[in-house]
Amino acid sequence: MTGCTFGIGQGYCASRRTKSFADELAQLTEAWRQVVRRTRNYMDVAIEMAKTAASLGEVPVGAVIVAADGRIAARAHNRVRTLKDPTAHAEMLAIREACRASSSERLVEHSIYVTLEPCAMCASAISQARLKRLYFAAHDPKSGAVEHGPRVFAHSQCHFRPEVYGGIGEREAAAILRAFFVARR
Amino acid sequence: MTGCTFGIGQGYCASRRTKSFADELAQLTEAWRQVVRRTRNYMDVAIEMAKTAASLGEVPVGAVIVAADGRIAARAHNRVRTLKDPTAHAEMLAIREACRASSSERLVEHSIYVTLEPCAMCASAISQARLKRLYFAAHDPKSGAVEHGPRVFAHSQCHFRPEVYGGIGEREAAAILRAFFVARR
Asked: How far lies B112's CA from each of B42, B51, B120, in Å?
């Protein structure tokens, strides 16, 4: 027993709690802002890669892989036509580059940022590489396989599911894709 | 009018037809035997690749790509560990090799023979490469994505569907996989 009446004690605790909640909320808000800013910065790098792809006549999709310490481990854009390789999607090239750099076939604790919802090939490769998080910009009802069609991560045949965050930088990434396809018509 | 009564004409035609049917049936049966023999021969090459993979400590899966004229355009086995590349499945390596050889990102009129039902990554790559036919040996309820789970070819997000023939050489391919995993336990 502290000598306080139950009522006073409760009031005191509530006021301390209120102050602590306000501080924590401010800290969380700031931390969240930083996460959003960082996420957007990485996606901007991926968007730059997509623009480079477009300038080379490749479907404008870019990808960036980020290590746990925030270092960019790989960046790539679609190069199907240039390499004459149907598997040369941005995600695949970035995964292979990051694995080469880390001498490992698993990218544990790494995140991938892509400007378009991955197709089944890339979604499955992301899972096989054990990438922890997938951030993608534009949703792709036509060929996407994360939130559409095969929904690769949603089946028991997928043995590792990354966290998935879609729609970051969607407007810009979608505009680049739209402009590319309009120009080709 | 040929001067034959309707009955005689019909009988005559029927007898000619019977003979023709017997010939055609024999020819078709022989053609079918040849197709089965050739298919099995190509699958045997893929099975040899799978055995090589096992001897290197890789999951024993092999793949062979065959051009329209029957020439083997590429053969590969799983090399995920050797190359430290999560995308280095037999099918992916064979597709990339065949595309390199033909200087094209599309393998139109080509067929692929694989010892195991492809995963989502490989199934999608087979579609993107426009491979006309997929022959696979062992069904894979655990990771397969053609007849299991994501069923990659079954959705509108898949823009090209190969013909699919499963179960050719299944017993032998499955035995090699089983022996590999038993030995690793």
From this structure: 9, 18, 16
* Closest CB to A84 among B92, B99, B122: B99
In this prediction, does ipTM exceed 0.95? Answer: no
Binary contact (A152, B148; C-beta < 8 A): no
Extract the tokens encoding B113.
């023979």
Partners of B119 in the β-ladder? none
Which of B84, B100, B145 lies at the smallest CB-CB distance from A157?
A: B145
Our separate counts of H helices and E strands in chain B read 5, 5
Task: Average pLDDT across each block of 10 residues of chain B; the chain has 185 residues. List them in order.
Answer: 42 59 89 89 98 97 97 98 98 98 97 98 98 98 98 98 96 97 89
Ramachandran bin of B149, using left for φ above 0, alpha for ψ from -120 to 50, beta for the remaining angles: left
Annotated active-site residue in A91, A97, A117, A172: A91
pTM: 0.87
Pairing of strands A163-166, A133-138: parallel
Q: Which residues pair with A163 in a beta bridge?
A: A133
Residue of A nearest to B152 (CA): A150
Structural contact between residues B162 and B131, judged by C-beta atoms closer than 8 angstroms: yes
Distance CA B5, CA A8 (A): 118
**B75 three-state secondary structure:** strand
Phi-psi group of A140: left, alpha or beta (phi > 0 → left; psi -120 to 50 → alpha; rest → beta): beta
